């Protein structure tokens, strides 16, 4: 029922899907650009409309009180960002122990304009030995774009450039808050 409802809403809002989710049982989905709280809402609507079983990391405060149960049912995994050390290993271990786990992360790590982006998602994929698929929320085209599937190289800088390259083609809700090049 929720899937049909979300499909209807996305259709009414004019959103479409381009490309497809790669056929891997375990993968990091780098979803961006992340410039607005609407990104989460559109992302969850797409997840439900497409019937995808996708987990995501969220700050632990979102999992407190009555909102916590909803966040967990939507696939949320609480992370205490004040204790960031060990998160990569913990999440990579969780992925390794799972038969199937698609983990969506915002590569910027924040809704604010920031450069360079956080590299934790690359290290999670590298540690768990799984690919990354770039997924864009293009507000100009109103399109969820399933982009390239990447294997993290030993040189994370090279992998990050591939990620930036994809997101240069996607228009954020607030484009001025997306920086994909130094000194931009």
TrEMBL record:
Instruction: Please state the pathway this protein functions in, per its UniProt record.
Output: Lipid metabolism
Q: Which UniProt keywords apply?
A: Acyltransferase, Transferase
Task: Kindly give the Pfam families that the UniProt entry links to this protein.
Answer: Acyltransferase
What is the name attached to this protein's record? Acyltransferase
Keyword Transferase in the entry? The reply is yes
Q: Which GO terms describe its molecular function?
A: 1-acylglycerol-3-phosphate O-acyltransferase activity
In terms of superkingdom, the source organism counts as Bacteria
Identify the residues that the record assigns to the Phospholipid/glycerol acyltransferase domain, covering every copy.
Answer: 28-140
BP-aspect Gene Ontology terms: phosphatidic acid biosynthetic process
Q: Tell me if Lyase is a UniProt keyword of this record.
A: no
The record's annotation in InterPro entries points to:
Plipid/glycerol_acylTrfase (IPR002123)
| Source organism of the structure | Alteromonas alba
């Amino acid at each position: 029922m929720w899937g049909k409802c979300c499909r209807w809403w996305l259709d009414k809002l004019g959103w479409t899907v381009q490309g497809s989710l790669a056929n891997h049982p375990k993968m990091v989905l780098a979803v961006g650009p992340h410039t607005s709280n609407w990104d989460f809402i559109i992302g969850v609507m797409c997840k439900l409309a497409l019937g995808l079983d996708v987990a995501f990391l969220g700050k632990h405060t979102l999992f407190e009180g009555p909102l916590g149960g909803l966040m967990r049912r939507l696939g949320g995994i609480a992370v205490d960002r004040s204790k960031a050390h060990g998160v990569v290993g913990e999440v990579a271990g969780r992925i390794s122990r799972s038969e199937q786990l698609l983990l969506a992360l915002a590569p910027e790590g924040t809704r604010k304009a920031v450069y360079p982006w956080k590299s934790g998602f690359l290290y999670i994929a590298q540690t768990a030995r799984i690919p990354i698929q770039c997924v864009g929320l293009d507000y100009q085209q109103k399109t969820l774009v399933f982009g390239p599937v990447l294997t993290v190289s030993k040189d994370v800088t090279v992998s990050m450039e591939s990620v930036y390259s994809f997101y240069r083609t996607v228009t954020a809700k607030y484009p001025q808050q997306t920086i994909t090049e130094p000194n931009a």
